Structures are given as structure tokens and as C-alpha cells.
Amino acid sequence: MSKVDFGRSVGLVLGRGGLIAVIAVTLIGLLWTLVIALLHIVHSINSNPSYDVLVASPIDVRPDIVADAEIQYATVIFTPTNPDAAALLLESIGVGSRYAVGMLAGIVLIWLAVQLLRRRSFGIGTAIALGVLAVAMLTTSVAAPMLEAQAVVTAVDAAGVPTEPSTPTFGESDETWVVPPTPHWQSFDFSLLALGVVTGLASLLLGRASRLQEETRGLI
After folding, report:
1. Half-sphere exposure of 38 (CA within 13 A, CB side)
2. Where does the sequence pass through the membrane (predicted)?
3. Is 65's pLDDT higher than 60?
4. Secondary structure of 13-71 in HEC code, one letter for each residue
């Protein structure tokens, strides 16, 4: 009974030089991603924290605006004087997890290239690697946006910025207030979520194919 070894077929097409080039480029990409992640987390988040928030104001504060609403909204950059440690930690974890998923995908790619260099077919080990990557994608797609939104809420609360009008009727006050983002399922990273589902299905199918191949070998 003949069968097609997909791993070896890809190896023959790319060749050893091509596989080594893939590994080298991926390693450079991993190092570059690590550097960018450290700069983002250490410099942008922890050294110079800032948050995009909505600010609500009564219409009579801006009489030049003609509208049928009682309040108006504007997006501003909120920079706390004394950054809150909990908010920094939440945002660092949320942002860092996104970079971690990208680096994990690069590690899986290197694993596949090494398997081809060793003339090994894709089996249970590859299925497990893809499964781990899929779980990381699914978790990050849900947790990262929630953590980042909660970081803004925590930073606003720590700064003591008003988050609701001081009077029940908007037009009776000229004070503005901040509307921080609410952690919600609509903020999920649906692109990463879909990619995680596809990767998970590929892992399951590859694992099933490997078991069928082993069973077939046992019958011969």
C-alpha cells in the first residue's frame, strides 16, 4: 500500500538550503519580536503610560456645536501623573501575551523545518505543537483585550477621575467625565480567535491522521 509523505515532499521541494534559510529567518524574526516586545512593555507601557479614553461633556459647554443630544463625546489620551502598578501589570500581560503568541508560532515553524531536515514525517509531536499554539491563540484572543480594557479602568479609578456626571441632568453642570472601556466579549480579537480555531482543527486532523497511519502499518 503506497502513501504520500507530505513532510518529505515539502522537504524535497524546499531543499536543505531552503529549510535552513527558513530557520535562520525565523530565528531573526523571533529576536526582533523579542526586542520590540521589550521596548513596547518597558518603554511605552511602564515608562510612559497613556490610555485612549472617551470624555463626555454637556453640550452647553460647547455652544458652537449644534446637536440634538445632551452630551458629546471625544477621544482623548489620558496620561496619569502617578501610574498605577496594577494597571501597568494588566496592560503588560495583555500586550506581552500577543507578542508571546507570535513567538510561539515562530518556534512551531522552526520545529516543522527541523523535522523536515531530519527527514521525519509530521506525527503526534507536530499535532501536539499545533495544539499548544491553538490553545495559546484562543486564550490570548479572549484574555488580552479584557486585560487591556481592565487596565484602563484601573488606571482611571486610581487617578480619581470622575466617571459619571455630578448631577442627574447633563445640562445642569459644565463638568466633564471619563468613560473608560468596559471589558466585554465584543472586544475579543476575533481574527486571532478564528486563527486559533483553524490551528486547533489542523492539530486534531493531523493527530487523527498519524494514528490512522500507525494502525495501517500494523495491518501490513
Report:
1. 5
2. 20-42, 99-117, 124-144, 190-207
3. no
4. HHHHHHHHHHHHHHHHHHHHHHHHHHHHHHHHHHHCCCEEEEEEEEHHHCCCCCCCCCE
Mean pLDDT score across all residues of the chain: 83
In the numeric block, the cell 484601573 is attached to 154
Is the pTM higher than 0.85? The answer reads: no
**Nine-digit cell at 31?**
529576536
**Cβ-count burial 61-94 (b if 16+ within 10 Å, e if not):** eeeeeeeeeebbeeeeebebeebbeebbebbbbb
What distance in Å separates the CA atoms of residue 42 and residue 95, rounded to the nearest whole number? 11
Given pLDDT bands bounded at 50, 70 and 90, which one contains residue 2?
Answer: very low
| C-alpha cell read off for 70 | 445632551
Contact 101/140 with Cβ under 8 angstroms? yes
What are the pLDDT digits (tens) for 118-138?
877 777 888 999 999 999 999
